[in-house]
């Protein structure tokens, strides 16, 4: 069984810098970590391989420094890593990103299963998984909390929904996005880290992928960020004194002001 895991580098701090012209995140490899949700996808891929055999491959689209995160994935037990890196990919929205990832994965076909984290914590769109599945023309299931059965031609999984859980039988190949409750990620072992240093991360650019430039980066991104800003937080505490009737009247006045009434209430 061949399992592909999509991982992404995200800022390791909440203090995110944005490009003044494109309003996209400025990514600094020295201050990045593996997207937390993706670590659960990595762990699940390794667990499936340990049960059924096969090969696990991590793939990422990012800056050259993303290689260290792919090395970390191999230190945890992933067999191979591929980095899609090119200046032409810069500024990609979810559609352009899923297109680029699909090209990288097509070169690995046939693939039995693709695993993604639920979403990236720097964007919170949760769109890459479903869009990637559509690019590849395979079924997908989101918010998977457990894989109950894995066979050569299908799997049965449990997904979280608003009012409970749903059991689904899915034909392979397929793509799943996983939640944090699916497992507990292992840490890289000393042996794994040493071994990962001997394995080369395969790099591919737009030319290697034979990508259509019109579908890459900003030019291939129909979603454009118009404006970004940090919300201003203005909070204060008001002490209310008096008897019950006086306190109630003061609270009523405050609520009226907040709702834009503007008139004092007696």
Automatic annotation (TrEMBL):
**GO MF annotations for this entry?**
electron transfer activity
Protein known as: Electron transfer flavoprotein small subunit
Q: What is the lineage of its organism?
A: Bacteria, Bacillati, Bacillota, Clostridia, Peptostreptococcales
Organism in which the protein naturally occurs: Tindallia californiensis
Report the CDD domains cross-referenced here: ETF_beta
User: What would be one Pfam family of this protein?
Assistant: ETF
Describe the location of the Electron transfer flavoprotein alpha/beta-subunit N-terminal domain by residue ranges: 22-213
* InterPro entries in alphabetical order: ETF_a/b_N (IPR014730), ETF_b (IPR012255), ETF_beta_N (IPR033948), Rossmann-like_a/b/a_fold (IPR014729)
């Amino acid at each position: 069984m061949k399992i592909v895991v999509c991982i992404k580098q995200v800022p390791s701090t909440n203090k995110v810098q944005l490009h003044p012209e494109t309003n996209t995140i400025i990514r600094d490899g020295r201050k990045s970590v593996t997207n937390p949700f993706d670590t659960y996808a990595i762990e699940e891929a390794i667990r499936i391989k340990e049960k059924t055999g096969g090969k696990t491959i991590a793939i990422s689209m990012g800056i050259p420094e993303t290689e260290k995160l792919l090395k970390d994935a191999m230190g945890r037990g992933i067999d191979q890593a591929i980095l899609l890196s090119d200046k032409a990919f810069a500024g990609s929205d979810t559609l352009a990103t899923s297109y680029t990832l699909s090209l990288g994965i097509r070169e690995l076909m046939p693939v039995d299963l693709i695993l993604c984290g639920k979403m990236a914590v720097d964007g919170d769109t949760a769109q890459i998984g479903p869009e990637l599945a559509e690019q590849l023309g395979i079924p997908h299931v989101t918010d998977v909390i457990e894989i109950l059965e894995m066979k050569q031609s299908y799997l049965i999984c449990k997904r979280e929904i608003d009012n409970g859980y749903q059991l689904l039988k899915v034909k392979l190949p397929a793509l799943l996005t996983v939640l944090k409750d699916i497992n507990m990620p292992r840490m890289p072992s000393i042996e794994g880290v040493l071994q990962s240093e001997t394995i080369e991360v395969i790099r591919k650019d737009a030319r290697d992928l034979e990508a259509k430039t019109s579908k890459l980066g900003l030019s291939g991104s129909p979603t454009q960020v118009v404006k970004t800003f940090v919300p201003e937080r203005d909070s204060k505490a008001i002490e209310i004194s008096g008897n019950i009737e006086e306190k109630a009247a003061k609270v009523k006045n405050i609520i009226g002001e907040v709702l834009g009434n503007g008139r004092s209430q007696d």
